[in-house]
Structures are given as C-alpha cells and as structure tokens.
Amino acid sequence: MARYIGPACRLCRREGIKLMLKGIRCETAKCPMERQWRNSPPGMHAWRRRKPSEYGVRLREKQKVKRYYGVLEKQFKLYFAKAERTKGNTGDILLSLLERRLDNAVWKLGFSPSHKAARQAIVHGHIAVNGRRVTVPSYSIKQGDKIGVRASDKSRKFIQAFLGESPPPVQSWLSLDSAQLEGTVAALPTAEDVQIPVETQLIIEMCSR
Predict the structure, then answer these.
(1) Helices 73-85 and 90-99, packing angle to 10 deg
(2) Predicted confidence pLDDT, tens digits, the chain (209 residues)
(3) Residue 75 falls within a domain, yes or no?
(4) Of 111, 20, 25, 26, which is closest to residue 70 (Cα–Cα)?
C-alpha cells in the first residue's frame, strides 16, 4: 500500500494551514506553524516565491484535501468520479464521501490522535464495525453503523490510552459511548463537518480539466 512517509509538518507548511497530521502536537507551541521562522513554505528559496497562478491555486486546494485525509492521487480520483456520478452538489458529495472514511470516523471519535494513527489502529485489527473486525481504513461507513473497539484486552487498552478519562467532544453526526468504547453514526456527514476551510469549486475546476 502506497503512503507518504516523509515529514508530516512539511505538508502543513506547504499548504499554509494546520492539517492536524500529528494530533495533539499540532495544538501546542511545538507545531512549526506556530513559529514565525518555520511557518513559510518548505524550500531554501521560499521568500522568492511568486504569486501563484490560477492552476497553482486550484492545485493547492486539491492537495490540501488529499493530505488532510491521507489519500493519494489515484484514490482521490475514484472519490471524485463517484461524486460526479451521484446526484447533488459534486463538491459537497466529495467531502461527504471523504468524511465517511472509517479512519476519519475513528479519529473524530477520539479513538486515535490523528488520521495516521487511526489507520494504524484499523489495519492492526483493533476496530470493529457492527461487531465485525474491519481492517480497511477507507471502508465507507453508513448511517446507523456502530464503530467500536474489539473485545480483546489488548485492543481496549490500546484505544483507552488515547481516549483518556475525559473523552473529547464529538461532532453532531457521531455519538460516543465512552464506557463501552463504541460510537454510532447518527447521520451522514456533510461538507460543514470538515474541520479545515475548503473551496470545493476550485477542486471541481481542477479535476474537470
């Protein structure tokens, strides 16, 4: 499985926005985006960069979404093609499909500190959907699905370490039972549930070329 293995903070600096790729660290003063001398784009000639072209602006918007959800180009094209085939606003449907990824739901339930850690927990078999183990991070959840931790002590200790004694607040489309380590998909997510600013029209223009 292809994946990005380079510095995570480099991606945030390139997009000029916090993508929350390192979980709690991104909310502290250790985040490079909080340091004035590190919050510029990577590269030795960042200060000489020119005004981006129209193509560059659209490309950056698409790359920002891809890096936030941890998907590569081929997978992103599949999501966009599916959004185009579905009735409704293509941009909103695209973001909804990405929000419905299992690794995103696991992260937003507080079972992991980041998307990357959520993928690791899923691949290692710690997460179950409707009582059945799922090891595919891109698994698309549906309304009414129950996302929980496997009954083994190893899995429960692994997830409880992240959840802690005071579970974080979850978004309205999810509900969490911290005692049972189980979350429920109360409704399908919408574009408003995305936690970073996204201009979907720019992504549509970029992918429709």
Answers:
(1) 130
(2) 567 777 777 777 777 777 777 776 666 666 766 665 555 667 665 556 677 788 988 998 999 999 899 899 999 999 999 999 999 999 999 999 999 999 999 999 989 888 888 999 999 999 999 999 999 999 999 999 999 998 888 888 888 887 765 667 889 999 998 888 899 999 999 999 998 889 999 999 998 87
(3) yes
(4) 20
Q: Is the pTM of this model over 0.90?
A: no
Let me know whether 203 and 135 are in one domain: no
Query: Residue 175's beta-bridge partner residues?
Result: 184
- Domain assignment present for 90: yes
Which domain covers residue 112, as residue numbers?
101-185
